[in-house]
Specification:
Blueprint: E1 13-19, E2 25-32, E3 39-43, E4 47-48, E5 56-62, E6 68-73, E7 77-78, E8 84-85, E9 107-111, E10 122-128, E11 137-141, E12 146-149, E13 161-164, E14 181-191, E15 194-203, E16 211-215, E17 219-220, E18 228-234, E19 240-245, E20 249-250, E21 256-257, E22 279-283, E23 288-294, E24 302-307, E25 312-315, E26 333-336, E27 341-342
Parallel strand pairs: 1-11, 14-24
Antiparallel strand pairs: 1-2, 2-5, 3-4, 3-6, 6-9, 7-8, 9-10, 10-13, 11-12, 14-15, 15-18, 16-17, 16-19, 19-22, 20-21, 22-23, 23-26, 24-25, 24-27
Protein name: Thaumatin-like protein
Signal peptide: 1-25
Keywords: Disulfide bond, Signal
């Protein structure tokens, strides 16, 4: 099935959170109001199903669930065992997702308050096109407002909202803790004939082994303390990510797993890492490039990231004032095109 257009989509996948009878769960009612089939996915609870036009899928999500995500997949084909692939939003070829979806995808994100009597009595939710737009989506809460993305311009993008506990809600994850810092150095270089690539020099100054990963260019490898990894990233690369993985074990074919930042059990990553993970994010443009650090998906290893014509961003722990904690923090920094970019771990 051909994928629908990624912009100017008038159809909307409707996601509604309905309060359950106790403080132990919220009911997500997911309805496909598009004119074509959508395969919604939900993590960490739900997995995924096929929804024909007009169909509805209901999920019970426990109180205290954090970093929840719902998104629509398009152009999918699965066999009887539930393996296959999607044109957009694919989660490693599975019908029932346990991994995050691949870009582009429109995201509904949420964090639910804990059980009755807990310290957190608000839940949070948002709609995001940070990872691109693939299908229209609206997200509403019974005691809050409706957020709607009908196209890639989406004025409701990353507008964090809250609802009372026992309503319907969304937000992001809690950071972890690590004392050591992984350092990434991003150095802009001129390829033969022009500004065609940037060189990322990734150095492990931690006292333990780190398995850095990079997408969409680079993949991943093992770095012992003091080792360096260099990646050439083409100009025009957008939504780039570098993160450190810890506690990994891989066999000779590059298959295994990591305690944090795992990307579908692969040494060389093509999928996004699983939370918690500290992220260096970047877009290599023409006259101007952009970079940031993010702990929206949690914190797992210290990292600093800098540009020769900009500021140095450093995260040594989960409190990290230089990083995005929520999508609307606006912690993105700019450098001129052909600058030297440095992300330093363990400064």
């Amino acid at each position: 099935m051909a994928s629908p257009p990624a912009t100017n989509c008038s159809a909307v996948l409707l996601v509604v959170l309905v309060a359950a009878g106790t403080a132990n769960a919220a009911i997500f009612t997911i309805t496909n109001q598009c004119s074509y089939t959508v395969w919604p996915a939900a993590t960490p609870v739900g997995g995924g199903v096929q929804l024909n036009p007009g169909d509805t899928w209901t999920i019970d999500v426990p109180a205290g669930t954090s970093s929840g995500r719902v998104w629509g997949r398009t152009g999918c084909s699965f066999n009887g065992a539930g393996t296959g692939g999607c044109a957009t939003g694919d989660c490693a070829g599975a019908l029932s997702c346990s991994l995050s979806g691949q870009k582009p995808l429109t995201l509904a994100e949420f964090t639910l308050a804990g059980s009755a009597g807990g310290s957190q009595q608000l839940d949070f939710y948002d709609v995001s096109v940070i990872d691109g737009f693939n299908v229209g989506l609206s997200f509403s809460c019974s005691s809050g407002e409706t957020l709607t993305c009908r196209d890639s311009c989406c004025p409701d993008n990353t507008k964090l909202r809250h609802c009372n506990a026992n309503s319907n809600y969304q937000l992001m994850a809690s950071p972890a803790t690590f004392s050591a810092i992984l350092v990434v150095v991003l150095v802009a270089t001129l390829a033969a004939g022009g500004a065609n690539a940037a060189t990322f020099t990734i150095t492990n100054r931690c006292s333990f082994t780190v398995w850095p990963a990079a997408t969409p260019v680079g993949g991943g490898r093992q770095l012992s303390p003091g080792d360096t990894w260099t990646i050439n990233v083409p100009a025009g690369t957008s939504s780039g990510r570098v993160w450190g993985r810890t506690g990994c074990s891989f066999d000779g074919s590059g298959r295994g797993s990591c305690a944090t930042g795992d990307c579908g059990g692969a040494l060389s990553c093509t999928l996004s890492g699983q939370p918690p993970l500290t992220l260096a994010e970047f877009t290599i443009g023409g006259s101007q490039d952009f970079y940031d650090l993010s702990v929206i998906d949690g914190f797992n290893v210290g990292m600093s990231f800098s540009c020769s014509s900009g500021v140095t961003l450093t995260c040594r722990d989960s409190s990290c004032p230089d990083a995005y904690h929520f999508p609307n923090d606006r912690k993105t920094n700019a450098c001129g095109g052909n600058s030297n970019y440095q992300v330093v771990f363990c400064p």
